[in-house]
Structures are given as structure tokens and as C-alpha cells.
Design goal:
There is one protein chain. β5 and β6 form a beta hairpin. 67% of the residues lie in helices and 7% in strands. It is built from 17 helices and 6 strands. It is an alpha/beta fold and 442 residues long. Strands 2-1-3-4 form a 4-stranded mixed β-sheet. A two-stranded antiparallel ribbon has the order 5-6. α8 packs across α16 and α12 packs antiparallel against α15.
């Protein structure tokens, strides 16, 4: 046991002190925090308002286009050809041409620009024209547009979960899907990242012939377990630092740039108003609905059992890594270079890739038979169980999955040890599955 602890300490300290570990520990939180920070920064770089000239041959839409923070509308009095020739001299971003047609209202318009018009300008103009043309058609038919507005209704469907004790708690399917998918992707990412570190470390020591000196003092099994646990501790340390530093960066940013964030949120609301019809927004945001929606969101967040979620994440991250790390170490011991690992990596990666692919179907039916069996099968349970937990998993399923994960790790370790003890001193021979089967039977 003391020898395993020494190997764990060596693996942990040597990797933590590496420059790559320090750089990634710093860059990781910066990249995750940038998801919140960059949109606000980009919102400040929108530049000057864009001038759009309106050439309306019908005379019906001149006063329908209201200026916004990003778009200014100018009335053009000259003809179309002259306007197109002077588009640069008049400092125009685009020219909107509404032609005179034989019908009472135009069905199509043209937007001339020296550059490709962005989606905000195009969406705003198209929406204003659509709304006004519909109003003209309704008036021509003798239908009051206000009647149609009053008919449109938005339904808020709140989900309430009743637990076994009869207590009610607000839940959100969308929130559960997001939390489950994020947890599954993180575990998928970390298993691959740190599992490959174990494999590359074994290959490096084997090709450098350092392993011959090491196994003279410790057993191959002790060496393998020390490397796997040591790298697992490195992964937990880095992940913990990422979470802490990301929270610090985001919290600091929110405290110092609250005004910019409010400005960004208002610009997003303005974008929605430009793209979504005004009457649709009015029917959507009815009195009381907004407050009820916000309250439901906060109650849904509070209903998530974060203690259980964090515990399950740590367990399945460690358990999944230990299981796959043992198999990755066995692959590293069986080959002489990283190129030869491809034929053995595919069978191992298929269960993880399959888990991510079918995770979206599991979220549709988290209590179905496929979700149950895949969440207790050790090779797929780290991802699938994290997808299921936010929806509420029976404790019997969770305990069964954890038990099988432990048994799966022990079985994978036993299997990997049989390959490791033979392959770690094998040089210059191309290994195939038949040869691996012989090593397992020794």
C-alpha cells in the first residue's frame, strides 16, 4: 500500500507542477467565463447606427418605420437609379425600394446595399412591412385588427411534481434537460481527457525503458493503480480550481459591469421586438404572466437537488474515469507508440460516444427501459445517469448503478492488470486482439 501511495504522490506532483497543467488551469476558467463576458463586450462594439434610405413609390410606408438605437431611416425623394449611384456619398447602409404595383399593396420589396445586410436590419424591415400590409388587407376586408389581437393568447404551462410524501414542487423539463446534458458532456469530456493522459504516460515510460527500472521495485498492478489514482486526483484538483476561478471571475465581472449587462439585456429585448411582431409580444407578455414565469423559473431551480447532483457528478466522474483509465492504461502497456492505439481505442470509445448520441432520446423518456439499462451499465452509466438525475431518479436505480460501477471498475482493473503485467515489458511486437486474449488467460 505504501508503494501505491508513493506512486500516487509522484504522479500527482509531477503533473501538477507541469507548465501545461498551470496554463490550462488558468485558461479553463477564462474560457468558461468568456461565455458570459464576451456577449456583453461584443454588444458594446456594434458601432454607429446604420442609415437606411426609404424610396416608397406607394406612399403608404414612409411614416411606418421608426428609428431604433441601431437603425436610422431617411426618406429619399430622388429616383431609384440616382439613389443607387449616390448610396456611398449619402452615407447610406442600404436603400429600401417599395415599388408601385397593380395590386393595392406590394407583395415584394428590394433592399439595395453595398454589403450583405445583417439579420437585424433585414428582420426589422421585413417585420414592419409584413405588419402594415396585413393591417391594410384587414381594413380593406372590413375586419378590425384589434379583434385579432384580442384573440391571440399565450398559455403558460407550469409543471408541478408530486413526490412520494405528497409534497408539491415546481419543476422545469427544459431546465432538467439543460442540467443533465451539461453534466453528461462534462463527464464525457473529462473521461477522455484524463484517460488519455494515463495512456500517454504509460506509453512514454515504456518507450523510454524507465518502466524496467520501476517494476524492479513495485509490482505492475501497483504501478498501474498508482498512475490511475494519481491522475484522477489531478483531474479533480483541476476541475475544482476551474469551478472556483470561474465563479470568482464571473462574480467580479457582474459586480463591476452591471450597467453594461443591463444595456446588453435591453439590446437583446430590442432585438426580439425587431424580429417578433409587436402584437405577438403584446399577447405573449400579458399582465401577471411575466412574474409567474420568473417565479416558476426560480422555484424550478430551487427544486433541483444540487447536493445529490454534485455528489453523483463527483462519483460518476471518478468511477467512470477509474474504469476507463484502467482500460486506457492496459492499451498503453500493449503498444509501443500512440499510433498503434487506434485499433484498441475504438471499442472503448463506442459506449461513451453512443451515450452522448442517445442522450437526447433519453431526455425524452428518462424513465423508459432504455434509460434504465443504459444508466446501470458501467460503460454508459457515467453519462446516462447524469442525464437522468435532474429528472428525478429512484434511489434504488442510483444505488444499483453505483454498485455496478464499482464492480465494473474492479472487473476492468482485474482485466487491465492481466494485460498490463505482460504488455508493459513487451517491445517491438505488433499486438492484436488474439494476443491480448492470450495475455488475459495467462
Amino acid at each position: 500500500m505504501n508503494k501505491i501511495l508513493l506512486i500516487i504522490k509522484r504522479e500527482y506532483l509531477t503533473r501538477v507542477k507541469k507548465r501545461s497543467f498551470i496554463i490550462m488551469t488558468i485558461l479553463g476558467p477564462l474560457l468558461m467565463a468568456s461565455v458570459f463576458i464576451v456577449p456583453v463586450y461584443i454588444a458594446q462594439l456594434e458601432g454607429e447606427p446604420k442609415n437606411v434610405g426609404i424610396l416608397d413609390e406607394t406612399g403608404l410606408f414612409y411614416d411606418k418605420f421608426e428609428n431604433t438605437e441601431n437603425i436610422k431611416f431617411l426618406v429619399l425623394t430622388n429616383d431609384l437609379e440616382t439613389a443607387k449611384q449616390n448610396i456611398a456619398n449619402d452615407n447610406l447602409y442600404a436603400i429600401l425600394h417599395i415599388p408601385q404595383t397593380e395590386l393595392s399593396v406590394p407583395q415584394s420589396c428590394k433592399l439595395f446595399s453595398t454589403k450583405q445586410p445583417n439579420i437585424i436590419v433585414k428582420g426589422y424591415i421585413k417585420n414592419v412591412l409584413k405588419k402594415e400590409v396585413e393591417a391594410l388587407k384587414l381594413n380593406a376586408s372590413g375586419i378590425d385588427p384589434d379583434i385579432l389581437k384580442s384573440i391571440k393568447t399565450n398559455i403558460n404551462l407550469f409543471t408541478i411534481r408530486i413526490n412520494k410524501g405528497g409534497e408539491e414542487e415546481t419543476s422545469s423539463t427544459e431546465l432538467s434537460m439543460a442540467v443533465g446534458m451539461i453534466g453528461g458532456i462534462l463527464i464525457y469530456f473529462f473521461i477522455f481527457m484524463y484517460g488519455s493522459l494515463v495512456m500517454r504516460g504509460v506509453i512514454e515510460e515504456k518507450t523510454n525503458r524507465i518502466i524496467e527500472v520501476i517494476v524492479s521495485s513495485v509490482k505492475p498492478f501497483q504501478l498501474m493503480m498508482g498512475k490511475i489514482v494519481g491522475v484522477a486526483m489531478v483531474g479533480l484538483t483541476q476541475f475544482t480550481l476551474w469551478v472556483i476561478f470561474t465563479l470568482i471571475i464571473v462574480t467580479t465581472f457582474l459586480s463591476f459591469f452591471s450597467k453594461e449587462i443591463s444595456s446588453y439585456q435591453s439590446s437583446q429585448l430590442k432585438l426580439q421586438e425587431n424580429v417578433v411582431p409587436t402584437e405577438q409580444l403584446e399577447s405573449t407578455i400579458e399582465p401577471g404572466n411575466a412574474n409567474e414565469s420568473f417565479i416558476a423559473i426560480f422555484e424550478s431551480i430551487q427544486s433541483i437537488n444540487f447536493e445529490m447532483l454534485i455528489f453523483a457528478f463527483v462519483f460518476f466522474f471518478v468511477g467512470g474515469y477509474l474504469l476507463y483509465g484502467a482500460l486506457f492504461a492496459a492499451i498503453g502497456s500493449a503498444v509501443d507508440n500512440e499510433t498503434d492505439t487506434q485499433q484498441f481505442m475504438l471499442p472503448l470509445t463506442i459506449p461513451l460516444i453512443l451515450s452522448i448520441v442517445i442522450a437526447q432520446f433519453i431526455m425524452v423518456n428518462p424513465d423508459g427501459p432504455a434509460a434504465f439499462w443504459l444508466s446501470i451499465f458501467p460503460l454508459t452509466s457515467p453519462v446516462i445517469m447524469m442525464v437522468r438525475i435532474p429528472f428525478g431518479v429512484p434511489y434504488t436505480d442510483l444505488i444499483l448503478s453505483m454498485t455496478l460501477m464499482i464492480l465494473g471498475f474492479l472487473g476492468a482493473t482485474w482485466l487491465a492488470a492481466k494485460i498490463y503485467r505482460t504488455g508493459i515489458l513487451m517491445y517491438g511486437k505488433k499486438i492484436n486482439y488474439k494476443e491480448l486474449w492470450k495475455w488475459i488467460r495467462y
